Amino acid sequence: MLLLAEGRRQRPRMRNAGDGIHPVHRHRHRFELARIAGRPTAGMVKDVVMPGGHQEAKIDFVADDPGPAPFRCHQRPRMDHDVMALLDRARSARHQPASATAAPAGAACRFGPR
Q1: Could you report the per-residue pLDDT of 68-99, keeping only the tens digit for each?
Q2: Which listed CATH number (2.160.10.10, 2.60.40.420, 3.40.640.10, 1.10.10.10) goes with 2-111?
Q3: Which of 60, 101, 107, 110 is the 20 to 30 A CA-CA neighbour of 8?
Q4: Which residue pairs, CB below 8 angstroms and at least 24 apart, start in 93-101?
């Protein structure tokens, strides 16, 4: 589980290292698409983004939604091979699960072949 600073704007960067399209979805929450394939965007509120082969996407959201939620690629083989994370907002230390890890600033996700 990755813990995000509650109330702070997050901008993860996702890089598709493969040739195919990867539909990446943030469950139960929406985000604003900030950049895709090298082009800035604004005002596009979504819950799925589909970076093409060898493209990057950046999304913005505020970590203020309650409860942990999956953030993952919607292709079954990718879900089975680590293109999935569980995101939650950070709470006081006494409420954090032992397995939780704080997300680094400017965290990046890489998906596609290794």
Answers
A1: 888 877 666 555 555 667 888 886 444 444 44
A2: 2.60.40.420
A3: 110
A4: 96/3, 97/1, 99/1, 100/1, 100/2, 100/3, 101/1, 101/2, 101/3
pLDDT exceeds cutoff 60 at 66: yes
What residue type is assigned to position 49 of the chain?
Answer: V
